[in-house]
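Structure in, sequence out. Go:
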């Protein structure tokens, strides 16, 4: 779940499309655009995040208490939900770029999210939509029926579809409105991005504080009902500005090119790429007559011209991109493939950060009173992670980067790969601190005779859960942003959207891996009548052992990261274009 919180805005720019044959922006309907449209777009995004994320922090408790799921099963469901949401963001970006356009996709997503949240709210107010209530660990609770789970999972799916449509398109749609706002378009766009990111962070903090508090104090029916109202206003605000928007016609997506290249190369598998002949290769323009590199040379078959008469039109362009690709497309895919090993090292840190569901369970057993009259909701302790991000990132950029740049000679103070490595190490330290804290919590629960009373309050402050979450915030600030910076520096400007898409895919894969790890640990440690490490009664389980296992996996991943850095070699310094092998003059 915390994977959604840390750098959740990461997927917001993957809807930026690129079509080498067309201008990137083609007005479909000429509205006013400009800053007058910003309240409609940003409010839609803020409210959608509050509505869809507002249920996540406490959802593990809802699944356990209302649907009688075990802790491991509930955590696995949430991780799969996170995977689905992030994976659908790629689909949303593709539909926006290639078929429907951003306005239609955001409108579709708003309707889907609203429908999903209303359906989820209905499970709290309509009798028979969930199992009958019972006291967990004391009564023989009836499990949810297949029809009850179908309704629950359908609501999750609709919310994921909505988020997958809105989040990859919202920032790009806002950027469309500012294209002609001022002569200094770059400064205008940067200002919009800064405010957009700030609004995203604010929505996360609101979710982890106010919305969690409402659910904790006023019940599920009122808490989920509020989220449905918020999502209604999100959709209403966006549609209210329809006549003002500049709407962009969909064009071909950059993602489709990555599919075309290997398919065309396979179709041309009988051809042998020439060494240095520009006449044999298809280029997007005459300005860049460069031969493809010899790395992954079998892909060069995709840009070989077999028959100019049938494959090229009179103006030298290729009308069918599924028959021949350009050199630029081929080299773009090579760049992406070369980054995959380093990208894979970011999966484990996202798995590590994504253990917040267990943090919520820990907090429910501990003393959460900040004052005699104010008790912090169990799910609010993870707010430390986004707060650290909000505070640390400006300090790093404004204060530390200029200072470090004077000594390192690097524009960003330290290299992107170095930042990624620091983040990996900090995530291991955070997980180790969490394991130590859980070991102490469990021992105190047993000493105080509470191992069979999960609803009892342990004489240990839940504030001890804050140090791991604070360290996770620093880990994300270094690794996640370091990843995106690294991808941007290695890709050409034309592939900038892929830099963020890679991170989004990493979140999706990490959610799937996290769910797999949870199920493996649960099954492996519960044999022979033993209590599982991930028992729903965490006072009897061994959550500390699980955290230590994740720490060890994180250290192994760090060693793997060092090997990938050595294999990759020296990183680029932010070139604007891909480096191709120049042709020999004839």
């Amino acid at each position: 779940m915390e994977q959604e919180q840390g750098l959740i805005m990461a997927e917001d720019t993957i809807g930026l499309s690129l079509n080498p044959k067309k201008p990137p922006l083609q007005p479909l309907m000429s509205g006013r655009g400009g800053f007058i449209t910003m309240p409609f777009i940003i409010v839609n995004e803020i409210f959608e995040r509050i509505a869809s994320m507002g249920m996540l922090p406490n959802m593990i408790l809802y699944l356990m208490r209302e649907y009688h799921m075990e802790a491991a099963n509930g955590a696995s469901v949430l991780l799969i939900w996170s995977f689905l949401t992030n994976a659908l963001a790629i689909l949303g970006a593709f539909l926006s770029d290639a078929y429907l356009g951003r306005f239609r996709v955001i409108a579709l997503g708003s309707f889907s999210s609203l429908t999903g949240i209303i359906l989820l709210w209905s499970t709290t107010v309509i009798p028979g939509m969930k199992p009958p209530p019972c006291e967990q660990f004391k009564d023989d609770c009836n499990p949810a029926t297949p029809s009850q789970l179908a309704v629950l999972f359908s609501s999750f799916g609709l919310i994921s579809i909505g988020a997958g449509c809105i989040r990859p398109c919202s920032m790009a749609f806002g950027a469309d409105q500012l294209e002609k706002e001022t002569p200094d378009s770059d400064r205008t766009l940067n200002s919009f991005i800064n405010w957009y990111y700030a609004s995203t962070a604010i929505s996360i903090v609101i979710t982890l504080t106010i919305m969690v508090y409402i659910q904790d104090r006023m019940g599920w029916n009122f808490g989920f009902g509020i989220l449905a109202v918020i999502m209604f206003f999100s959709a209403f605000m966006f549609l209210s500005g329809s006549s003002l928007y500049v709407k962009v016609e969909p064009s071909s997506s950059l993602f489709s090119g990555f599919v075309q290249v290997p398919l065309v190369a396979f179709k041309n598998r009988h051809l042998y790429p020439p060494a240095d002949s520009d006449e044999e290769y298809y280029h997007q323009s005459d300005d860049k007559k460069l031969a493809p590199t010899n790395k992954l040379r079998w892909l060069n078959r995709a840009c070989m011209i077999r028959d100019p008469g049938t494959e090229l039109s009179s103006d030298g362009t290729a009308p069918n991109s599924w028959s021949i690709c350009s050199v630029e497309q081929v080299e773009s895919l090579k760049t992406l493939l070369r980054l995959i090993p380093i990208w894979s090292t970011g999966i484990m840190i996202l798995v590590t950060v994504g253990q917040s569901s267990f943090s919520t369970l820990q907090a429910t057993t501990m003393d959460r009173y900040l004052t005699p009259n104010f008790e912090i909701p169990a799910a609010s302790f993870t707010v430390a992670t986004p707060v650290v991000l909000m505070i640390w990132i400006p300090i790093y950029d404004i204060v530390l980067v200029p200072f470090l740049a004077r000594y390192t000679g690097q524009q960003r103070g330290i290299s992107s790969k170095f930042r990624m490595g620091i983040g990996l190490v900090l995530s291991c330290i955070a997980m180790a601190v969490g394991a130590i804290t859980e070991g102490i919590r469990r021992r105190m629960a047993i000493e105080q005779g509470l191992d069979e009373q999960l609803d009892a309050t342990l004489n240990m402050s839940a504030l001890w859960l804050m140090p791991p979450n604070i360290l996770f915030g620093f880990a994300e600030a270094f690794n996640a942003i370091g990843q995106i910076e690294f991808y941007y520096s290695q890709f050409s400007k034309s592939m900038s959207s892929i830099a963020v898409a890679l991170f989004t895919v990493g979140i999706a894969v990490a959610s799937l891996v996290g769910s797999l790890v949870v199920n493996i640990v649960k099954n492996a440690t519960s044999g022979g009548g033993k209590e599982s490490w991930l028992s729903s009664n965490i006072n009897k389980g061994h959550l500390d052992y699980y955290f230590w296992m994740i720490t060890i996996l994180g250290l192994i991943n760090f060693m793997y990261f060092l090997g990938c850095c050595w294999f990759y070699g020296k990183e680029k310094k932010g070139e604007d274009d891909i480096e191709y092998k120049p042709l020999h003059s004839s």
